[in-house]
Write the structure tokens for this entry.
Amino acid sequence: MLNRRSLIVTAALSALAGALAIAQSPSPGGPAPKGLVIDTGSFTPLVENMDRSLAFYKEILGMEVPPLPAAGGPRPYNNPNPRLFAFFNIAGARERHQPARVPGIRTVVEAMEIQQVPHKTVALRLQDPGKATLVLMVRDIDATLARVKAAKYPVVTTGGQPVSLGDGTRAVIVRDADNRFIELRQPPEIPANAPAHNIIDIRVMLTVADLPRTIQVYRDVFGFTVERESPFRAEPVEAVLTGVKSIEERHARAKARDSQMWLEFVEFRGVERTPLTMKIQDRGAARLQARTENIDAVVNAAKQAGLTIATVGGAATPIPPNFKGALVVDPNNFFLSLFEPCDGCAPPDRSR
């Protein structure tokens, strides 16, 4: 059984750690290798109460979550970890994070709660750049929506029922226990190799301020493959789905080299938008965990592209047990937790 100290790092990194080989060193005298993101792991919404959030994922969505303590009470907070807190720039915080999983899907949803540091609660709107929406592909959208309604969580979609998209997908947007958006989608056909669970795929949709700028960063700085870039166009069905009237949208999607998860981008036009400004501890913030190859090169490229490195010192920092990590802010104030295994750079602290 994992103790509290183990959970500090393993719960955040276990989805990716050990899954891929550490990148080989460049040959002596050769050019410095370009860094890139090679995989993605947890999607982390920052929440007010982790136990409440995990209960939603379990009871409404049927995801697997760690059990509550046998003795009763809330799930424990992690022991303080100064180097992890330097990574997040949350010195003095109380912190806990645990995952919600679907068997057969590598991407996990990791509820994270940060207390005892200044924070704010952000009122999220679908059109505002920086808003991250969890997208769940499901077998039975009607049964899932019925559970949402029975528990009295809000339905955002106009009319309160799924709408049919152009490819035959049925979709509806709801709010969760933290008033965050979740889009449920039922595809017209279920792939033969889909997980047996009602949830068959997990994605993230990010509202962006400038689609070409976002694509440039994810493609050229992080090394994602980008596809399905579209021009602005009126989307009447999307207006019903989102409840955002008189809009035009343009889209693209991106994926890291070895990832199973699509990160979708949407930019709205013709509606008032307010770019979100958040710190990682703010309720409404979100992050995507990303495994890198040559993390220092990725961080340097991010700086050259004008991105903010939120980690103390503005560089990748050692995190026990033997990882280097940096928290990077994308052009939309969406956080990417970059990490990479290292050889002895941060041995476990046996004194705590």
User: Anything to note?
Assistant: Residues 1-28 have pLDDT under 50 and may be disordered. The longest strand covers residues 36-47. The first helix runs from residue 4 to 13.
